[in-house]
Amino acid sequence: MANFFEDNYEIFQKQRGVLFFEGCLFTVLGIMAICLPVVFTLAVNFILGGLFIAGGLCQLYRVIKTWNIEGKWAALFSAIIALFAGCVLLGKPIIGILALTTILAIYFIMSGITKILFAASFEEKTPRFWIVMSGCISCILGVLLIVGLPETAVWAIGLIVGIDMLFFGIMLMSFASELKKITKE
Fold first, then answer.
1. 3-state SS string over 119-160?
2. Whole-prediction pTM value?
3. Cβ atoms of residues 159 and 34 within 8 Å
4. Could you tell me if 153 and 98 are in contact, meaning their C-beta atoms sit under 8 angstroms apart?
5. Do 56 and 50 form a contact (C-beta atoms < 8 A)?
6. Cα–Cα distance between 158 and 164 in angstroms, integer?
7. From first to last of its 185 residues, what are the pLDDT tens digits of the chain?
8. Contact between 169 and 50 (Cβ < 8 Å)
9. Residue 176: CB atoms within 10 Å
10. Cβ–Cβ < 8 Å for 137, 7
11. What ranges do the domains of the chain cover?
12. CA distance 179 to 173
């Protein structure tokens, strides 16, 4: 099995600055979300609601314009579901936030596992502490979200997204900084 880091060593070295900048951006966004969790929770809810409605309308338009092709009923059903989801998120934000919180919990757990597996693909000399730490934090946050439902849903999305962004930003900045010290053998 090939080593991901060594196979992409040159790319990582060339993109250190981009990685560091991305880390700074995620760190700032994370701090903002931690300071204003209810605002970020509502923002996520309303942005997703708008995206679902826009996507559902585009899909519905396409279905109407291509009504004579095979698969129209599945596409129509998908458009209706997207429109329904968007309307729920915008019209009933509490229900939307509860659903989003559940989905976010699953996402964090899966994201955490992925980060840990990503770090496991590196050799021992490769900087991976913060990648593993970020993965563990993501898993813990996902479990905390599930355990705290429904009471924590209103502020949890903003806070947990902020914490995850903060640690992801720190991980990226640390990884970019550590890349300077690594030489390919």
1. HHCCCCCCCCHHHHHHHHHHHHHHHHHHHHCCCCHHHHHHHH
2. 0.62
3. yes
4. yes
5. no
6. 10
7. 457 767 777 787 888 889 899 999 999 999 999 999 999 999 889 999 999 999 999 999 999 999 888 888 998 999 999 999 999 999 999 898 998 888 888 998 999 999 999 888 877 776 788 889 989 999 998 998 899 888 888 888 888 789 889 999 999 998 888 887 776 65
8. no
9. 21
10. no
11. 30-179
12. 10
Nearest CA-CA partner of 119 in 106, 136, 139, 142? 136
Contact between residue 44 and residue 100 where contact means Cβ atoms under 8 Å apart: yes
Six-digit token string for 142: 């996902």
Residue 35 has which token pair?
A: 């300071």
Tokens of 62: 């396409």
149's tokens: 């439902």
Q: Find all residues with CB under 8 Å of 168, minimum gap 6, and list them.
A: 23, 26, 30, 134
The span from the CA of 101 to the CA of 107, in Å, is: 10
